[in-house]
Amino acid sequence: MLRFLIIIGVWTLAWAAFAQEPGYPSRPIRVIVAYPPGAGVDLMARAVAQKLSESLGQPVPVENRPGANGLVGAQAVAKSAPDGYTLLVIDRGALTINPSLYQSLPYDPLADFAYIGVSAELQYVLAINAALPVATFQEFVQLARSKPGAINYASFGSGSIVQLNFEQLNSHLGIKLTHVPYKGASQAAMAAINAEVGIMMSSFAGLAGFIRDGRLRALAVGRPTRSPLLPEVPTLSEVGGGSDTVVPTYFTFVAPAGTPRAIVAKLNAELGRIVAAPDIVERLARAGLEPQSITPEEFTEGVKSDIARFGRLVNALGIAPQ
Predict the structure, then answer these.
(1) What separation, in Å, do the N-terminal and C-terminal C-alpha atoms of the chain show?
(2) Which of 153, 187, 251, 287 has its CA 20 to 30 A from that of 40?
(3) pLDDT of 57-78, one tens digit each?
């Protein structure tokens, strides 16, 4: 369900800031996406960039710079001029898990970026191989408890948010699922279909076809309320999995640190309005994305909290930094 946390005071401050930057923007605003073209994050960035261009009266070209878990794109923007003309679209893992995975990270998520506060969340669906002899999440947990370590789970790589989510489930439920890393969501889904793993998680958009044709069975959704796309599938909270064990990822807009506050406020207001528009909400929903908009300060605090939280998990799992 769409949740917007923009309050009247923030809008008032943002609009007051407009008068302080009357010339912005006076030229194109470049948006760097730290991932390959074609995925949900790219769709989100391009849909929003088009609307931002229409709103501000300047071109907003999108440039894909994938590589190294978001490091390539993030480093490029961290070194850009803090003038509001270069923005980054990056995910939760690159901002909050990478600091624990790399000994020498080429950017500092807290020192190098100014957070706009507008993002799109990707909520996870937990799905199993349809041949497993269980029909519900509770039955799956019972099976896992009866066979510690025998059931594999697929992640998108060591240290990925999916691995950390599954390890939180292991701890919360007192089960032992065995980690098998893959290179991405499509490979993980095929591993579940081919019974290489018993369970995986991904967005509904990535699993819809497999769920509909019966090759995968959806057991639960990691969101506060049931998904309108899968109304018959319970939330993790409903089936005892906890309300905060499987956290969503997100894709968010970021500017270089030092970008004037008035520009950040203007982008927060413009992007917040854009992602609230019904046509954008509908387009993102088809990709399994849910728009979110909060203040830059609130978003920054969330990043700080996540870095500490995921750092503890990475350390507990014994994942050595690269």
Answers:
(1) 38
(2) 153
(3) 999 999 999 988 899 999 999 9
**CATH 3.40.190.10 domain position(s) in the chain:** 124-222
For 3-122+249-317, give the CATH class: alpha beta
Considering the chain, what is the average pLDDT of its residues?
91
Report yes or no: 14 and 265 within 8 Å, Cβ to Cβ. Answer: yes
For 136-172, write each residue's pLDDT tens digit.
Answer: 999 999 999 999 999 999 999 889 999 999 999 999 9
| In the chain, alpha helices (H) | 8-18, 40-56, 71-78, 92-96, 98-101, 137-146, 161-173, 185-193, 204-212, 261-276, 278-286, 296-317
Tell me what pLDDT residue 21 has.
Answer: 54
pLDDT band per the 50, 70, 90 thresholds, residue 40:
confident
Q: 124-222, superfamily in CATH? A: Periplasmic binding protein-like II (3.40.190.10)
Q: Bridge partners of 31?
A: 62, 87
**Across 33-61, average pLDDT:** 94
What own/partner pairs with CB < 8 Å and gap ≥ 24 does 23-26 have? Answer: 24/84, 24/262, 24/263, 24/266, 25/56, 25/58, 25/84, 25/85, 26/58
Asked if residues 255 and 116 have their Cβ atoms less than 8 Å apart, the reply is yes
